[in-house]
Specification:
It is a single chain. The protein has 239 residues and is an all-alpha fold. It has three domains: 54 residues, no CATH class; 93 residues, no CATH class; 61 residues, no CATH class. It contains 13 helices and no strands. Helix 3 crosses helix 4 and helix 9 packs across helix 10. The longest helix is centred in the first third of the chain and has 24 residues.
Amino acid sequence: MRDDSAFDLFWEYCLTLQKELQVNDPVLERPHKRPRRYEDGAADAHFHDDPKTYYRAIYFQCIDAAISTISHRFQQKDYSVYANLDQLLVKTCMKMDYSVEYKTVTQFYGSDFCEPDLKTQLEVLGSMEIKIHKDSLTFSDIHRHFQSMPSSQVLYLNQVALVIKFVLLMPATNAVSERSASALRRIKTYLRTMTQQRVNNIMVLHIHKHLTDSVNQKEILNEFITSNDDRRKHFGLFE
């Protein structure tokens, strides 16, 4: 992706889109000299000869910025703990060596796990047949398998279930919390005052819209009406 041939393909694709969308040809910005206070050294300022070389520099800057950001994101300590929890279960089910992940998890969480029980239960987990929904086994397959198990079996594998809970409770990103904060700014404004309980209820409905959209509204209305005789007289029941 970060080479001249990749940029040439990208440039040709942009030119094709430009013709389809009927937009102006790419042009160079008017060259202007930087202020003297920003100059460093005695060399003359560099100006690009054509639009392609100008956008080529921008293309590589964007690629470098994306690579740097992604590398920083996946090299954080918190993500390493998250990845070890995930891989501990996956490697166990795939009958691979998980000693490194096991040591990292038990050292980090300490007394949260009972190490002898966890070791035994991981061996039991490795002997289970788990249905794979994609090409390779993933944490979702293990989680789905535990959801289908009776509660007595889950209780028997309580340490493994605790690992699953830690994976589910530890967000890989903070995008959900950021969206929740943005939703709060839209719902609770200076002109729309409400109690904290009402704010909590509305926020739950707003954030989990995929669940609220599937609710049968007539059943909720009928339940609201039948809870009071006066409501039944005024509204009646919805069919």
